[in-house]
Amino acid sequence: MSTVEVISLGGVGEIGKNCTVVRQGDDIVVLDCGLSFPNEEMPGVDIVIPDFTYLIENAAHVRGVFLTHAHEDHVGALPYLLQHIDVPIHASEFTLALMKPKLDEQLPKRKLDLRPFQFGDILEAGALSVEPIRVTHSIPENASFAVRTVHGIVLLTGDFKFDFTPVDGKLSNVTRFGELAKEGVVLLLSDSTNVDRKGWGPSEKIVADGLRKVFLESPGRVLLTTFASTIHRMQQVYEVAAQTNRKVAVVGRRMEQNVETCSRLGYMKIPPGTRISLEETKNYPPEQLAILTTGSQGEPLSALVQMSKGTYGRLQIQQGDTVIYSARPIPGNEAAIWRTINRLFRQGARVVYGDDPPVHVSGHAYEEELKLMLNLTRPYYFAPVHGERRHQYELARLAFQMDYPEHRVFLLDIGERLIVEETDARIEDRVPCGRVLVDNSGTPGVTDDVLRDRSNLSREGVIAVTVAIDVEMGEVVGDPYVQVRGVHSSEDVGKMVAKALDDLLDSLNVDDLRDSDKVRHLLAEAARRVVQRSIQMRPLVLPTVVEV
Asked: How many angstroms separate the CA atoms of 258 and 107, rounded?
C-alpha cells in the first residue's frame, strides 16, 4: 500500500510562508502558497517565499494548488510558483477574485487555470481528493482542507477560529469536522499561532463597539489602518461610519481594488452614501470623515508611512486626526510600526492601538478553540503548524495534556518528510527547502552573500578608488580618484586614502604597473589598511584600474 508524505515547505518554525505538500505515490497536492515579510537583517528584500525546488522537480506530479483564503501569507507566493509550473488553482470565488488583479499584474501573458469551489465540494486530484470545509477567520470564505488519502484524512485547519457571531453570519461547519472524525482523520495539521492565549478568542463583532467609541469621541478625521485583505474589518468601518455620520475614503491601491471587488461581488455591503473618493474628502469637515489606509505593518512605501513622514502628496496628517491601528504586528515589523506611530504623534495625531478599546481581535484560535478542534476531529496523529517553534511546542504540550501519546505528535521543521503508513508514522530526511528572497526588482534569488554585503555596506560604508595607468609605458596617468560613501569624516578619510595610494603608486616599478590585477589588489589593501588604522572601520573597497 502507498505511503503518504506530508511536507511543510513553509509555515513551521515561523510566521508566514505557509505551504504544505501532501503526496501519495505519483500524486501531489499543494495546500496554500504564501509569503512572509523580511526582518531587519534583510536589507533591500521586499518579500520572502518558499524554496519551490521540490515542486519544480516534481511538476509532472502536482495535481493542483488549493488555497484556504486570500491573506498574503497563504497566497502571496503563488505567482512565483506559477512562473515554473502550470497547474490548476482551486479556491473560493472570493479568494480568486481578490487574487486575480495581482496574478494578472505579475503574470500578464499567462492563461491561468482558476477553478472556484463551493464548500463541501469533493475536488479530485489523481488518487487524492480535497474537500474544503468552511471555518471562520478574519476574512470571508475561509477554508480548512480534508485531503483523503489511502490511510485516511489528512486535515489542514488553515488559519481558523471558532467565532459564533461572525461579521458575515457564516459559521464554522463544526458538524462537518465531527463527521470527518467518524470517517477517520489520520493526521491533523493545526494552526498554533495563538496557543499561548488562554480561553476563547473574542468575536470579530466586538470590534465594532470599539470602533464606534473611537469614532464618536474623535473631534477630527479618523484614519484606520489594517491589511488590505481584512475585509470584515473594512465592512465594520463602513457600518460604524454610517452610524456616526461619517463618509469613508480609501487610500492604497490594493485596498481600493479589494473594496471595489468585494462590493461588486456582494461580500461587502456598503451603506448607501457612505463611500466617497479621496478627492471628495475636501467637500466635508474633518469630523465627518473616516479614511481606510494601508501601512499597518510599517511598509516603507505604504500610504500611512508616507503620511507619517509628511511625504504623501494626496493626504497630510492634521492636528486633531485620530489613527486606529487595527492589525496585529507581524514578527519582525515591530520596530517599523513603532517608528510610524511615533511620527504620527509628532504630526499631531492621536494613535489608538491595543485592546482598550478593542479595535482589533485576532483571527486565530485561542487555547480552548484549539482543544475543541482536537476533540471534534480526534486525529490519530497530530502536528502543530502555522507558528513559530514555541507555538508548535506549546500546542504539542496541550495535546499531551489531552492524553495524546508523544509518539503520535510531531514537531515538523521546514522540508521534513512526515511519512504516514498503515501502522506507523515517522519523520524522514528533508526535501530541498528553505527561503528565497525577493528584492524590489521582483526577481527571486537574493543570496546570503548579497545580504552580508548589504549589511556590511550599511555598517561600514564603501570607498571607490580609480587609477589610470598607461600599461604600455608602465606609468600612472594623473592622480588617484577617491570616492567615500557611508564613512564618517569622509573628507578626511578621502584625503588619507589618496595620500596612501600616491605613496603606493610611487613605490611600484614598471613591471608592477603593467599588471592591472596586481595593482587592483594593492590599491584595495592600501585603502583598507589606512582606514582601519585611522578610524577602525572596514569599508568595502572597490578598486578600478583604467588602462589608457
From this structure: 19
CATH of the domain at 269: 3.40.50.10710
Name residue 370's amino acid.
Answer: L
Residue appearing with cell numbers 469551489:
117
Q: With beta carbons less than 8 A apart as the criterion, state whether 50 and 17 touch.
A: yes
What is the mean predicted confidence (pLDDT) over 59-64? 98
Nearest-CA neighbor of 190 among 425, 367, 4? 367
Lowest-pLDDT range, 62-66, 91-95, 389-393, 462-466? 462-466
Phi-psi region for residue 96, left (φ > 0), alpha (ψ -120 to 50) or beta?
alpha
Residue 357: is the preceding peptide bond cis (ω within 30°)? yes
341-372 pLDDT, tens digit each: 999 999 999 999 987 789 999 999 999 999 99
Give yes or no: residues 437 and 370 share one domain: yes
Question: Do 249 and 312 fall into the same domain?
Answer: yes
Those residues whose C-beta lies under 8 Å from the C-beta of residue 547, and which sit 6 or more positions away, are 469, 470, 471, 516
Note whether residue 383 is domain-resident. Answer: yes
Q: What is the pLDDT of residue 46?
A: 79
Which helix (H) or strand (E) covers residue 256, if one does?
Answer: helix 253-265
| Rounded mean pLDDT, 368-387 | 97
Under a CB-based contact definition with an 8 Å cutoff, are residues 508 and 467 in contact? Answer: no
CB 343 within 8 A of CB 211: no
pLDDT band at 1 (very low <50, low <70, confident <90, very high): low
Q: 28 lies in which domain range? A: 4-199+362-446
CB 189 within 8 A of CB 389: no
| 508 part of a folded domain | yes
Residue type, 460: E
**Residue 488 burial (CB count, 10 A):** 10
180 and 46, same structural domain?
A: yes
Segment 437-451, tens digit of pLDDT = 888 766 776 767 777
Supply φ then ψ for residue 436, to 5 degrees: -120, 125
* CA–CA gap between residue 373 and residue 390 (Å, rounded): 20
- Which residues carry out catalysis? 191, 364
Q: Give Cβ neighbours of residue 427 (< 8 Å, ≥ 6 apart).
A: 410, 412, 416, 417, 418, 419
How far apart CA 65 and CA 430 sit, in angstroms, is 21
Q: How many domains does the chain have?
A: 3
Answer yes or no: do 326 and 389 share one domain: no
Three-state secondary-structure class, residue 325:
strand
**Quick one: cell of 239?**
457600518
